[in-house]
Amino acid sequence: MVTLEDRSVKKKSDERRSHGALCMCTALNMEEGLAAVLYGDGVLGSRNRIHCTVKSTFSETHLVPGLNDLLIANLSPAAVSRFRMGWLQEREQNSSPYNNDSVKSSTQSLSSTYGTISRFGGIPYDVTNSINVWSSGMWVSTAIGATAAMAAAGGKAMPDLASSKLQYYIREHMVEKMRHDDDGHDIDNGMIEEGEKMHLRWNSQKGRIFIDGSHLIHNLDLGDEILIDNSAPPLQIFEKIRDDHQQ
Prior knowledge:
By secondary structure, this protein is mainly β. It contains five helices and 15 strands. A hairpin with a 2-residue loop joins strand 6 (117-120) and strand 7 (123-135). The radius of gyration is 22 Å and the shape is globular.
């Protein structure tokens, strides 16, 4: 029940609670919102989610898609989070040196053809433009998650909430400030564009991935590899009621 006191409040948000960024309507216009959905006037939209796969020695785990953000960090907030960060480029399946008729120089051919290779889902990838990171961990967020922990950490605003881009931010990165790496990405804070795949190799003894807060977690061990992109199924939602509907 909406009280007269509630209706007289000019500020509709309460910092003590979630501000309902995904809600189509509020308690003040619930009746109008439900009528719009039931009678076909609701506008259906989608919001991007984070896809994350962790490859360990004997397993490959697809984590629950993240709607707001992921935090990848050491178990202890006082400890350094060590990892190697790069970008994955899918290799052609027929690019193996073993396709050559002659194998007399196989060792030389392997070293010149293969560089740093990783596999996810049986697909081989080159790991490019990688750097070693010593930090307090890393945030990865969607556009709707960029207004929360990402913004508090110093990330960028993402006005387009339906954007397919993901944002990453390395916390307290212990490295000399460089603006861009060779691939055009910011070192500390940048975007994962549509179709790009970020690769992390965890170099601390222990670590943890926190998905949308502290309730969903996945533990990391030394040597685990992480793939992050925006290929998770999007969340389908009804868009907020526009101002012209409220008048």
